[in-house]
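Task: complex structure prediction.
Instruction: return structure tokens for all chains below.
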Amino acid sequence: MQIAIVLFDRFTALDAVGPYEILSRIPDAETVFVAERTGPVRNDTGTLALVADKTLDEVTRPDVVIVPGGPGQTPQMENERLLDWLRAVDATTTWTTSVCTGSLLLAAAGLIKDRRATSHWLALPYLKRFDVEPTGERVVFDGKYVTAAGVSSGIDMALALTGRIAGDRTAQSLQLLTEYDPQPPYDAGSPQKAPADLVEEYRATTRHPQA
Amino acid sequence: MQIAIVLFDRFTALDAVGPYEILSRIPDAETVFVAERTGPVRNDTGTLALVADKTLDEVTRPDVVIVPGGPGQTPQMENERLLDWLRAVDATTTWTTSVCTGSLLLAAAGLIKDRRATSHWLALPYLKRFDVEPTGERVVFDGKYVTAAGVSSGIDMALALTGRIAGDRTAQSLQLLTEYDPQPPYDAGSPQKAPADLVEEYRATTRHPQA
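Output:
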């Protein structure tokens, strides 16, 4: 089983590395980071680069695709080379997935039209422009399309997906191995739970690319 | 405030990227990935490389140090160059921290002797060999030393540390921005919660480097 994780300039690192850390440990998984060019790809803050080991052209039939998000997703919405690749590989994937605003790329590629999906909470409304139904859920399965909410939610998505791919016991093993027993010291991880004025501040100051 | 995240061959990616994604977003934080040599450093499965932008020699007075773990921690236990660097920078850090088996490197450097600390659940007993008191907690603060349990626990550590560094509101902001509202689909994230036979299987098959 080949898992391809897409990188592009100014992606959000945890969007990619969260699900990677789980899914790459499924027995028989072969995981590959892909981008338009091989070599280092810088993240949204510019302080971390992950290495793409293969070009998009070199990876033509992955079983699983993971598309992260991040501020760099905006220019990719018009990158026909990436969108074409997503459409091409989606024809034979078992699972096509995204984390955070990566779902807007799946939407722009026309892959999740008329389906239910999620995204970063600040980006959720923009799914509608692509005839995608936004949900407030953290992980959404709709057919073979799996979308996760913001950044850290890719870990939850990956465990759920591991269960579908390799069974509950493997998923539990990987949860135990990565000691994923979350104990956040605050309870502010969603717009429903965070202080209201903080949510409003973000809503007021975030000029979303698709707005 | 400079935050240095240490990389070495066969580190575990999420150990580093989890806390990175939170701490690097603290206003005025300057985050840098450091290693003995600059350039790509491969993780434990060999399928992901993160780029070290500075050598250890180039980063002499970080305010915060983060040491990840992973199978590659074992040979580092005898890498005097790294241990010397840890001792040298620790003299002026505000916070010296680790995730997963990274705490064994802090222990080997003699930095947490007679202190309480945590580590990956499979590695906990080995802290005692360095006169460190292992605890079952997910995140342990002892003076300026902060240790986190296995892999994913670095996210919780980073949020707690953000609270100490920049206040509760900044920590809540970053939790909201990274949408850290964990909803694991299984409840197997600790040896207390996972199926007992799975825990035993790991205990029986993991030959820990320090054993």
